[in-house]
Amino acid sequence: CFLARAPAIHAHAMWVIACGFARHAPSRATVHVPRAIIDKACRAFSGLSGDAGHAPEVEVARLERKVTRLKNFLKRLRWPRVAHFHAFGQLHSLPMSARSDGEEVRSPSKTTLRYLGGLFDRDGCVSVQTDGSGCKLMISQSYMNGEAVLQFLMAFGGNILFSRDGSGIQRPIIQWTICGSAARRAAGILHEGSVTKKPQLGIAAEWLACTVKREHLRATLKYMKAVPPTVMDLRCSWHWLAGFFDAERYIRPPAIQWVVVLEIGQKHDAVLHFICDFLLQENLVTGKTRVYKYARSSSLIVTKDALSRAILQKLLMSGIQVKRQIVELSLQPKSNHARVRTEVSMKSGQQARYSRLDEAGCQRGTRISRLQVSLRKQNARWGTGQVRVQLAQHYLESLKLDHAIQNQLFTLSCLRGDIRSLLRMGAKRVQEGTVQ
């Protein structure tokens, strides 16, 4: 009763009184404490104020609706047309051809060819020209990460063109493309460095003049894209893996502790097993390194920190380019967890931008995680009927609600900042259904 009648008592004092009451209760007795009393103590201790304003559950729902409305508005904002792209710390004008800057196309070295083969195996595309006279090779990247397309331009020629407008958090896309006899030459060279797209590049390199055979090759190429890729070259290398990882990587910065978690996702798992076998040969695989198969995709995940760092060191020495800054940040000492996590998140993709935790959110998550561990120990020792366990359980629930509210407020702040930034850049709102 004292807890219910003392609204002015300091939060910490209320918690001490509640725990003292629980401590003096019989050790094996099950004492029921009214939910209202427990909620009042938990709200006071955690800082949640349910008296002035909305209840925490209602506030979370209200903020979620605001976030949904702003996300829908952001999706309908189309970026202005970009006239340049970023690569290796410099701005390059669009469109860009092989000799627009006076440089001659030079044949790549064997190590560079393996690296480019890995990039093309993940992000490259082989398609037939509209008139059927030959094939064309393409690779697309964000205009902020144009290192890959620039390397293909310098190695094989072709052009770098604007491909797609940006909308919302999706940045504009640029594309390297090459066709005709130059495409046949490039396909013949890339064929040596490729692992999963050797058959497709072989068709592009030996495109026939016979119209009937062209139709057969077109159908074969279409079939190859629909079925799981066949690993034709069993000689994997770190240079090929550096290119593949550059195009398809995910360095996950956990919120609670700084460990490097690597993840490579693919629609089919054949390539992932190929990479896993290569890491096994290099003694960089343990029981925690495995291929996980989901409903529509598969992922190779490395969760052991020492192995992840060793793999990143190898990739760094093998010439990784597009994600070099992210890899270097991830290899920094663990004492810089908060700063490194923030910088890695900023330089990574935008897909999870509004679900990442800020530094304060990481601290709240750590606090909640520690309390959950403590609560499990209390449950095992005292049982769920003890007063101290009831108080800890409801306090944990109040912390989770406060965590949800603060996360939604941080997401709202990010959304508003992104919308203002796009509007200042000249983005236009388009009707729903017309955004590409």
Brief account:
Helices cover 51% and strands 14% of the residues.
What does this structure look like?
By secondary structure, the protein is an alpha+beta fold. It has 15 helices and 13 strands. Helix 11 packs antiparallel against helix 12 and helix 12 packs antiparallel against helix 13. The radius of gyration is 28 Å and the shape is globular. The N terminus is likely disordered.
Number of E strands: 13
Major sheet summary line: 5 strands, antiparallel
Overall SS class: alpha+beta
Q: Summarize the amount of helix as a percent range.
A: 40-55%
Report low-confidence residues grouped into runs of 5 or more: 1-18, 20-34
Mean of residue pLDDT?
80
Number of DSSP helical runs? 15
**Outline:** globular
Amount of beta strand: 5-15%
From the N-terminal CA to the C-terminal CA, the straight-line distance is 62 Å
Using only C-alpha atoms, the radius of gyration works out to 28 Å
Sketch the topology as an H/E string, one letter per element.
HHHEEEEHEEHEEHHHHEEHEEHHHHHE
Largest sheet, spatial ordering of strands: 4-7-8-6-5
